[in-house]
Amino acid sequence: MSHLHYRLSAVFAATLSLLLVACASSRPPVQAGAPPGAGGSPQDPANVKAAADRSDDIDTEATIWTVLGLAKKPSEHQPGPHTGNTVSPILWQAALDTLSFTTFSTQDPLTGELVTDWYSPQGKPNERYKIQVFVLARTVRSEAVAVTVDRQELTPSGEWKSTTIARKVEDDLEAAILRRAGQLKRQWMKAYAAE
């Protein structure tokens, strides 16, 4: 029984040490035969800076250290939906909320593109609209959101024909998205501060 106990202890210790080494290892492999000036040296200033940048981007919620309760860095995840690096989650959610009266043909939070299906307003079956929203920045500001609206009318022959729409309609939608973004930002900051 004592041999079995020691063997299991050794297997457990080996497994745990392999897991810790795998989680702690963040150094990129050095290419064999790389000349010293080609970035092969760990002391190369470019490699030192790259390693420092990578250490700042560690997601502490996805490491073994967090599971064990040993993470030294608090979570950097912001509230709201997960979006691309150049897409504001607040503006993205605000656009979804503002256009919730229709369905979407495209929703891409990584690029910030949101496109509705064609829809007809209530009481106006002879016209239809398609709205495209582009979230262009990570910050909440007026230049960070762009809206385009396509409008079509039904002709007597039964075909849809594109018509013009006043720029004010697009401006009003952008303003509505920004107002909703302001509300969401206040709500999320309160929730984040309460944690």
What's the mean pLDDT score? 77
Distance between the terminal alpha carbons, to the nearest Å?
49 Å
Outline type: elongated
Outline the low-pLDDT stretches: 30-55
The percent of residues in helical segments reads 25-40%
Task: Please summarize what this structure is.
The chain has helices at 2-24, 45-56, 64-67, 89-98, 167-194, and strands at residues 104-108, 113-116, 127-135, 145-154, 160-163.
Task: For the structure shown, list the relevant keywords.
195 residues, single chain, Alpha-D-Glucose-1,6-Bisphosphate, Chain A, domain 4, alpha+beta, 5-stranded antiparallel β-sheet, 5 helices
Tell me what the structure shows.
There is one protein chain. The chain has two domains: 2-67, no CATH class; 89-194, Alpha-D-Glucose-1,6-Bisphosphate, Chain A, domain 4 (2-Layer Sandwich). 39% of the residues lie in helices and 16% in strands. It has helices spanning 2-24, 45-56, 64-67, 89-98, 167-194, and strands spanning 104-108, 113-116, 127-135, 145-154, 160-163. It has a five-stranded antiparallel sheet with strand order 1-2-3-4-5, with helices on one face. Residues 30-55 have low confidence and may be disordered.
